[in-house]
Amino acid sequence: MICRQLFSLLIFCSASPALAQSSSGRTTAWLDVGGARVRQPTSNSRSAGALGGGMWHARDRVSVAAEGSVIAARDSISAAQYIARASLLPTAWSRTDVDVSATTNGIVLPGRNGNRSAMLRQFWRFGALEFSGSAGAGRTSRLQNTSSGHAVGTGAEWRYERAGGQWRLGTSLQRSYSNDYQFMEASGVTLSRLASRYTLDDVNAQLSWQRGALWLNAQRGWRRGVSATVGRAGSFNLSAVYSMNTTTTLIVQTGEQMADVVRGVPQARYTGVTMRWSPRRARALPSALRASADTRTSPGVSVVLVPDIKSDEVLLQRTEGIGTIVVTISAPAHAVVQLATSHDDWQPVQLARCGDVFVHQLTLPSGAHKISVRVNGGDWRAPRGLAQVRDDFGGKMGVVVIP
């Protein structure tokens, strides 16, 4: 029974798109098909296949998403998962995310066994650093027993741009509580004395690299029981996301998931492959009001869809013969920010102020193009996130190639 709950959260809906923001409406949909092998500490490996899909819409400072999946394991009945998500971006440096999810063994909601949970996350971004706080609670039904769990956490992430690629280094701390004795003992955690609940401390570290259509991620987690709780556990995740073309994305991952007391997901090792098809790909956003492509899944299941190029100053998406690039520059309110490109014979264009930043959108045809920006008549430089070359005057230019 526990293994079916693992399938319903682990596979394929973990590949949700980033919750982006836009000053005008944007809508996209997706379909996921894939398979996985999963093994809990006390059981044999099991195979499963899944079919999932969803839709995402953004307008002004709010975006919403809804998704679902149906999972069929080789030796168990079907399971299903449903998720509703909302993201609010009140300023260019903060974001609030709310996730509400349900898993059930059997297609009909709520089902006799399953989980209901909710998670609130708040993000604050200051330059290359992003800080976060989170809180969540869930209720699980299993074998006529009902249990609950909740957690609070904090985290930080640092981003670094180099040679057209983006590095991310993050860490998080979480304390969680659960009264699900069956669930915790299955993951090797026990009580040293009679107590009303298990108390757990988690530390997670994550390193990722993204360039163009490829995104790679590595994650490691450590858990220990505190108070009356005894036991230790660990997790790891290695994943890769590759955008094969404008509509198709391949997701491959392997690792070990720590038991999630909020979502009712047990500890297990897994290996999975997913193919995602998006009949309509979200266009480049015409403002800087966009959220980062962050992970929105349980620890150890960390996959996202990656734009062609994405940094704090550049968002580029390409199709055959055309590319759309949004350049976002942070500068004082009364600054004069200019952009010049080889496509327009280096005629400077002044960027418009949008909230706390300056923004300009370009549409470029097939070919190689060079782009430079400057603030208050200073030196020309390449927007961060683009490959750099030097010009004839000692400055730097960014290079964009459109197929």
Task: Give your account of this protein's structure.
This protein is mainly beta. The chain has two domains: 2-312, monomeric porin ompg (Porin, Beta Barrel); 315-402, Immunoglobulins (Immunoglobulin-like, Sandwich). Helix content is 4%, strand content 61%. The protein has two helices and 26 strands. It has helices spanning 2-10, 181-186; strands spanning 26-39, 46-59, 62-73, 79-91, 94-105, 114-126, 129-142, 145-162, 165-178, 190-191, 198-211, 214-226, 229-230, 232-243, 248-257, 268-280, 309-310, 314-319, 322-329, 337-341, 349-350, 352-354, 357-365, 367-375, 387-390, 396-402. The strands form four sheets. A 14-stranded antiparallel β-barrel has the order 1-2-3-4-5-6-7-8-9-11-12-14-15-16. Strands 17-18-19-23-22 form a five-stranded antiparallel β-sheet, with no helix packed on it. A hairpin with a 2-residue loop joins β6 (114-126) and β7 (129-142). The longest helix is centred in the first third of the chain and has 9 residues, at 2-10. It starts with a helix and ends with a strand.
Unreliable residue runs: 1-25, 280-307
Mean pLDDT: 78
Number of helices: 2
Q: What share of the residues lie within helices? A: under 10%
Write the CATH homologous superfamily of the largest domain.
monomeric porin ompg
For the sheet with most strands, the description reads: 14 strands, antiparallel, barrel
Note the gap between the termini: 49 Å
Order of helices and strands: HEEEEEEEEEHEEEEEEEEEEEEEEEEE
**Overall tally of structural domains:** 2
Radius of gyration: 23 Å
What's the CATH topology label of the largest domain? Porin
Please give the number of β-strands.
26
CATH first level of the largest domain: which class?
Mainly Beta
Q: Strand portion, in percent?
A: over 45%
